[in-house]
Design brief:
Length: about 375
């Protein structure tokens, strides 16, 4: 008998014990427990009061104390999962003043979350504000820091840079960078680079913020003390940026590693000399897209896809080499299908949920 396992796609994932994590499907409203050694996953259930077939309900998971906080993108509310019982709590979000950000979309509310002190900070993607969530004596308190967003338009993605108590978040639509004080909630925008057309990710080296371009343009080095800017655009001759260059910038020793999305290859930058070289471990052909899914302390999980296929692997941070890896639903498949059918009015057929699955599990 051939056993068919379902390949799972995670952008929202949190490690709760050594080699054990909780992942939220990118394609469906579904919670899984995953073994990071084998990739085997068990279906646990779904987030209540959210659409079952909605894509990218959440885009990040962070652990604070004994709770997993899910950062809502297209979801209506924040979800909090207990790390022991897997019970789910929901926290409502106030509706923003739409004039505060002309780019605001209900399907792209937040994109990133970090833990600072004993609180979780959720950073708006198009939502005009940053949320601070604290839990005291079992009660949740949400503070909204949004005065800095009034009259501003921006789209923040993932991977802000942390410098002490300060967050630095690049705008993907232009050369602005938000400097946000996590202690008092104050924020202000700075302009970083004349030829900066939008950046996706940042990292700190010494007193310098390095930014990876989302749109074709230079890599930016912005000194956080003097605010002097240096632009690096001496890419290798055979490198092609394409329309969506990089999604992540990593620092290892004295080198920076830029993970491509549609750029032809990754880039390695020597932070001492500023020289740039192709990182041929990660190459992307025409028609392909490399997605940075999530990371833990030791690895980044990536997805390479084209129109008719997709492949998964991880980047080992100790060796900076890639290895094939995939998450497979090996336990709870029947319950997953039953929940999707019973909780949905309409089910879209795709590679994960096919007509034969619907017919097999439909309750007459």
């Amino acid at each position: 008998m051939i056993v068919e396992y379902i390949q799972l796609d995670f952008e929202t994932f949190a490690e709760i014990n050594p080699n054990i994590g909780i992942g939220i499907s990118t394609e469906y409203n579904a919670i899984f427990k995953a073994d990071l050694n084998t990739g085997n996953c068990e279906y646990l259930g779904f987030i209540p009061n959210e659409k079952m077939a909605q894509k990218r309900l959440y885009t990040k998971a962070v652990v604070c104390s004994d709770k997993i906080y899910l950062v809502p993108s297209s979801a209506n509310e924040i979800a909090v999962i207990d790390t022991a019982s897997y019970e789910v709590e929901k926290l409502s979000i106030k509706t923003p003043v739409l004039s505060d950000n002309e780019y605001y979309k209900k399907g792209a509310k937040f994109n990133e979350g970090i833990v600072y002190g004993n609180s979780v900070y959720m950073i708006g993607c198009t939502y005009p504000g940053i949320l601070k969530i604290s839990r005291v004596n079992g009660q949740y308190d949400i503070k909204y820091f949004d005065s800095w967003a009034q009259g501003q338009s921006f789209i923040f993605r993932r991977s802000p840079a942390i410098y002490g108590n300060m967050l630095y978040i690049p705008d993907t639509c232009g050369n602005k960078v938000l400097e946000f004080n996590m202690d008092n909630g104050d924020g202000q925008f700075w302009c970083a680079g004349d030829n900066n057309h939008g950046c996706w990710s940042g990292c700190i080296v010494g007193d310098n913020l390095w930014l990876a371009p989302k749109n074709p343009g230079p890599v930016i080095r912005w000194n956080l003390i003097s605010h002097n800017v240096q632009e690096y655009d001496a890419f290798p001759n055979d490198f092609r940026s394409r329309d969506f260059a990089f999604s992540k910038i990593l620092c290892r020793d004295k080198n920076l590693y830029l993970i491509p999305v549609r750029a032809s290859a990754g880039i390695i930058i020597d932070t001492l000399s500023g020289t740039m070289a192709q990182w041929k471990t990660l190459c992307v052909k025409d028609g392909e897209t490399l997605g940075f899914m999530f990371e833990d302390a030791h690895k980044a999980y990536l997805r390479l896809k084209a129109d008719t296929w997709k492949r998964y692997f991880y980047l080992d941070y100790s060796s900076m080499k890639i290895r094939p890896f995939e998450f497979l639903l090996t336990q709870g498949k029947e319950m997953f299908f039953r929940d999707q059918i019973s909780q949905s009015d309409v089910i879209k057929e795709d590679s994960l949920f096919q007509l034969k699955d619907f017919l097999k599990h439909i309750v007459m």
